[in-house]
Amino acid sequence: MEQSTLVLLIIFSGVAIVIGGVLFFRLHAFLALLAAAICVGFLTPASQIEETSLRKNKLKLIEVDGENQRLQIEINKLGSIQPGMLLLIMGRDQPKFPLIPIAETEVKRVTAKFTETGKRIAIADLQIREGSASRLIKLDDFAITPANYQAAIMQGKQSVGERVAAGFGSTCTKIGILIALAAIIGMCLLESGAAERIVRSSVNFVGEKLAPLAFMASGFLLAIPVFFDTVFYLLIPLGKAMRFRTGKNYLLYVLAIVTGGTMAHSLVPPTPGPLFVAEQLGVDIATMMIGGMIVGSVAALFGLGYAVMINKRCVLPFRDSADVTKEDLTKLAASRLEDLPALWLSLTPILLPVILIAGSTMLKFESIKNICSPEIQSLILTLGNKNMALGIATVIALATLIRQKKSSLSELSTSIQASLSTGGVIILITAAGGAFGGVLQQTGVSDLIESLPQVSPLTLVTLAFLITTAIRSAQGSSTVAMITTVGILGGIAESTTLGFHPVYLALAIGCGSKPISWMNDSGFWVIGKMSGMTEGETLKYVTPMTALMGIVGFIIVLLGVQFFPMV
């Protein structure tokens, strides 16, 4: 069986287990992803694992002299290769197993040069050790350090359980603390009244006529640290209260709440889906936040435009529901803004991490780095660490909750435990997704995609969008769809081979998780039941809008790849 066919069969088996487990056997997403990881791990040959590991760390040959004595390689990271180092040459067409070097070389010089396109690259001149070459070296071959060669051999000897556990643990290391802290911040915003203050201040600022815009903006902002279902639970009573006050535009208010919340849910960290995708693709969290906010806000505005249009043509009846009675709406409309936390304090747990993380990212620019003393740089980097930034925001959110509710330590502990229970489940799902993605990448899927003829940047981004859309439509969960897709495509995320910044790949995956929302999506039922829509109304109004926003976001990503590749 050809390698490409085997890789496709392994990938199909894993994806089928995820979709079938969630959709048909009603497995929890954690169990479905873990089962898929174990299956893929068993099916992947040890030789394929070794070869994939080697190619992941390969150094590209760019010149071979006619006498088979001197070579030149491109260095991915300046400083990683030094004169005097030993490098092994691996053959692309040698037998698959065991993988044996075809030559040993010594680094003679490290320098730089400009390519024909004007790009400056680091290169190293190599001298082949006498008598070590078993054949003539070709440009299709590649170089590898002895350390990476040994690591690849050891990885091929690991058991399935060890490889799955390694991917699980690695993912927890990257995002476990962030998700737990975000869950606590979300709980504090809700219970302290800070979330309600943000929404009501937004509505008061823009006025009743622009209330849908306030709902969209508030939903977008709150969905950054708070899960979408929770954001909708919070905002729908306010939307009903606005309908109770105005007597019209109920459909517009419901859809406006959905627009902002659903886009932030898939595009802006520390929401689990985009956070996991960014980590897997090597995109720093500040870049993902900024990109997600730009793409998500534009897509949400298009969604709001759709909501305004459909609201003019259709009327959604206001129906009583068990969660909110007319007495509750009357009380909510009469509640005083002064009893809620100050607006600046309510916004601080959301905006402060963004500012701190962005500040540390700015130090990557030499012009900014040069004006800061070493002490200031150290402070900015410490506070701008993603875990530290969210930790500071968590302290502020907890202090706000204590101040507003005058909660005892026992009550505060109960609230924190409840939020961590929710966050813990999300951590398990994303960590299982990390394990699944890790073993998927060991199949060599990235090499398979790179070997496709004429794979343009736009084609890769389109592929990411379509794969995510297919998985989302099949099994319902946008987070699981994003986790599965990045597991398939994560190995091609180096900007040097992509031709564009990997943030665009992450954003395309996020946008692809929007179509198609229907009965297999928990959010579909939350929106329908909480708003009083029937299943048919939810399909008629919500499903086309979320699909439209995903497509609009994808178009924006395509434009970015084409005109602002950032490489």
Automatic annotation (TrEMBL):
InterPro entries associated with the record: Glcn_transporter
Membrane topology: Multi-pass membrane protein
Membrane-spanning intervals of the chain: 7-25, 31-49, 175-195, 215-238, 250-268, 288-309, 342-363, 383-402, 414-435, 455-474, 541-564
A molecular function (GO) term: gluconate transmembrane transporter activity
UniProt entry tagged with the keyword Repeat: no
Keywords tagged on the record: Cell membrane, Membrane, Transmembrane, Transmembrane helix, Transport
Keyword Translocase: no
GO CC aspect terms: plasma membrane
Subcellular location: Cell membrane
Family of this protein: Belongs to the GntP permease family.
Protein's UniProt name: Inner membrane permease YgbN
Species assigned in the record: Gimesia aquarii
Gene expressing this chain: ygbN
